[in-house]
Amino acid sequence: FGEGGDGYVSSEGVGAIMLKPLHKAIEDRDNIYAVIKGSAVNHVGKVSGITVPSPVGQADVIGACLEKAGLDPRTISYVEAHGTGTSLGDPVEMQGLIKAYSPYTKDTQFCSIGSVKSNIGHAEAAAGISGLSKVALQLRNKLLVSSLHAEPLNSHIDFHNSPFYVQKKTEAWQRPKLIQDGGEVTVPRRAGISSFGATGSNTHILLEEYLPEESGLDAGAWPEIEEGPHLVPLSARTKERLQAYAEKLLSHLNRLKGDGEGCDLGALAYTLQAGREAMEERVAFIAVDLPDLAGQLAAFVANDQGATPVHSGQVKHGTNVAELLAENGVSEARIAAWINSGNLSELAEWWVKGAGLDWALLHKKGHKPNRVSLPSYPFAKERYWLPVTDKGNRGLLQASAPLHPLVHANTSVLGEQRFSSVFTGRERYLSDHIIKGRKTLPELACLEMVREAVAQAVMSYGLNRSSLGKNR
């Protein structure tokens, strides 16, 4: 939405979200970031260019979405714009939004607008999920973040007389207060998200913050905070990643303590029990409260052998866990007895060896703990790119089998046909051909390189290679 916008910067991204019916998410005690109130998609059939949006199509899809959701646009306090980043595209998008909102209200400057593209660029196929992720996080944190590079504003957009204003700073997202039937009414935080594809496809989605008090649950249906001790499991692919995971969880607990926020140990334990995959390397802590857990995590990270003992083990690939349990007299009935008696030590000892547990039975009957936000798996961040060095294509050429001892790779581009080779100096035709103390490529080798490159070029056009060989 800035003056002089002449395009965008491409970026790469990937995003994923978990979709569930609201009642099911509530039943499962999930973290609910936002509630989808409605969505709509259309295609206008034809536009004047592949990158030219249609204001009519955009207005239609936004209007259809509002009607489907049954929402008054006056209650929407933020719009995540597609944000083409051009002097033409931005006014066209604003024209579509204004046209969709104008039948409902004449109020101005009540809805904030921004675009995640000003932060990360245009992620192409991942642009829509990027905007959705941004809005979900804004709803979760009750914040409106600034949209960058919008100073001065695009002079072709009359923001002052529109329902919208560009979000130029990060600030608390306040719930809108409206006058209805002579009284003031507070409405939930709501946001619209637009995303437009090439050649005339348009989509719009409406999100609303999740309000537990309005979910229809009885207050007594929420789980009580369970006192410890609790069994806290942690697992990873390798010992090194398990150490990193423990350190990440410890940092999270220290951050919560520093922010003065509380956390239910029972909910934390249940999240790690039921919300994480059990991997090969395992460790289990039995803690009475969060400080106790933090102390055990710190000792584990520091590899302090003299600290409170923890249960650790490895479930090797191919281990027959059923046979292992049977050999040691551990039956389902025995596990159930440990659960009923609260024998967490035995449960932890056998979980790290591979035993499966019904984690819900460890908590009060009829009360499933809430899941809470916890650090995700600490991936090793190994790189799997083709090797590339400072010398351009050297790493790429060495990574694949050469076409010929003297012509290693076809590095042609649209503008020219080109072949490249990289020599180490250890080749016989170099190491055995020394002139004035320097390894030198023989002239005959240069001619052979040219001949082979021409042969490869001819082959690319489907001609007979043998005919070329007869006329060296």
Summarize the helices and strands and which ones pair or pack.
Blueprint: H1 22-27, E1 35-43, H2 55-69, E2 78-80, H3 89-101, E3 111-114, H4 117-120, H5 127-141, E4 143-144, E5 164-166, E6 171-172, E7 177-180, E8 183-186, E9 190-196, E10 201-208, E11 230-236, H6 239-259, H7 265-274, E12 281-287, H8 290-301, E13 311-314, H9 321-327, H10 332-341, H11 344-351, H12 394-399, E14 409-410, E15 419-420, H13 428-431, E16 434-435, E17 438-439, H14 443-460, H15 465-469
Parallel strand pairs: 2-3, 2-9, 3-5
Antiparallel strand pairs: 1-10, 4-6, 7-8, 9-10, 11-12, 12-13, 14-15, 16-17
Helix pairs in contact: 2-3, 6-8
Explain this structure to me?
With 472 residues, the protein is α+β, with helices and mostly antiparallel strands. Helices cover 33% and strands 15% of the residues. The protein is built from 15 helices and 17 strands. It has a six-stranded mixed β-sheet with strand order 1-10-9-2-3-5, with helices on both faces. A hairpin with a 2-residue loop joins strand 16 and strand 17. Helix 2 runs parallel beside helix 3 and helix 6 packs antiparallel against helix 8. The longest helix is centred in the middle third of the chain and has 21 residues. The protein is flat. The N and C termini lie far apart (63 Å). The C terminus is likely disordered.
